[in-house]
Specification:
alpha/beta; elongated
């Protein structure tokens, strides 16, 4: 197998940790012996520790790891935390080569891990499937470099861009396959962001209801209008969902900074048109996932995103489509900010 093929396996392992390792990144590591056999493979454990490299080395054992090649989706750490540096663990195991998809932007590592390995005489290659690795850990990278989490806006829309009828009825615009994929998005998020109107209208659970993944529901934050002293939402959340976080006011940048400080790297927004508009207007959305159904709801139905009032097309946020997928009778599109 090629370097890219082994790295693809490592990326697949890392993807299983999305929504489970914050504030740490999710990392995959595959150890391959000199004769091309996989002798160890692991991802970052739930909660962020142990790291992938130390688990893969433990699987392989000291004899088999000597002279092996380690494929790692993110540069092995170089700093001491609750555990020792993974770069040092690879050096002590006497691996012969380390292939790194992308460097770690955390200033405590940021190239130092690769330098440690090279200084110990280990061959190091960087950049194999770098784009895929960076997208996988886009939340961690953004949190470390900007102090904000990666934000995905989820929209379930009719063909004419509506999320509900004029009377508020919205269940269900999309079918079971699309809703199941929406639950997977929840499972891969650290935090779910919604608005008071959505909560009061639907009284949602915001849980992950996929077989075997019921324990992966994200934490939930509810934005409400503090200026109007919306006690109804405060009382409902405190009584019915005491583990949810109340976020007063519409200063979404400050809310997201607070979530990032609490460890969140990936935030999923599931809300009505007002919250969607506010996030878009403040240029805080990194990715939009649209689930589109073959229904037309008409001009009196509710918009997926409230009116912006732009004067020219140059003002409109621009996104690039990166994925399209049929889900039963519905269609999913993933759009990312360039």
């Amino acid at each position: 197998m090629s370097d890219a093929a082994f790295m693809r396996v490592a990326l697949g392992l890392a993807a299983r940790g999305l929504g489970r390792t914050a504030p740490n990144p999710t990392v995959g590591c595959v150890l391959v012996s000199r004769d091309g056999q996989v002798i160890g493979q692991a991802r970052t454990a739930n909660g962020g520790r142990p790291h992938a490299e130390t688990q893969a080395l433990a699987q392989a054992g000291s004899d088999a790891a000597r002279g092996a090649t380690a494929y790692v989706t993110l540069e092995p750490c170089a700093h001491h935390g609750e555990t020792g540096p993974c770069s040092q663990a690879l050096i002590q195991a006497q691996v012969g080569r380390v292939v790194i998809a992308t460097l770690d932007p955390d200033p405590r590592t940021a190239g130092k891990g690769a330098d440690m390995l090279r200084a110990a005489g280990i061959a190091v290659d960087v950049g194999v499937m770098a784009q895929e690795a960076q997208q996988l850990n886009a939340g961690f990278i953004k949190r470390v470099t900007t102090g904000l989490p990666h934000v995905t806006l989820k929209l379930a829309l009719s063909l004419d861009g509506k999320i509900a009828l004029g009377n508020g009825e919205s269940q269900w615009i999309t079918g079971p396959a699309a809703r199941a994929r929406g639950h997977l998005l929840r499972a891969q998020a650290d935090f779910l962001l919604t608005g008071a109107k959505t909560v009061l209208k639907d009284q949602p659970r915001f849980t992950v209801r996929l077989p075997g993944m019921e324990d992966r529901s994200p934490r939930v934050g509810v934005v409400y209008d503090a200026d109007r002293s919306n006690q109804e939402i405060v009382q409902w959340v405190q009584a019915e969902r005491p583990d949810w976080m109340l976020l007063p006011g519409w200063s979404f940048t400050e809310h997201l900074k607070a979530l990032a400080k609490s460890g969140a790297t990936r935030v999923l927004a599931e809300a009505g048109g007002g919250v969607a508009k506010a996030l878009m207007a403040q240029r805080l959305v990194d990715e939009i996932v649209v689930f589109r159904a073959g229904k037309v709801l008409g001009g009196d139905a509710r918009d997926g995103i409230s009116v912006f009032g732009f004067d020219s097309l140059d003002q409109a946020p621009h996104f690039t489509r990166v994925e399209s997928l049929a889900l039963g009778e519905d269609f999913m599109e993933v759009w990312r900010h360039p």
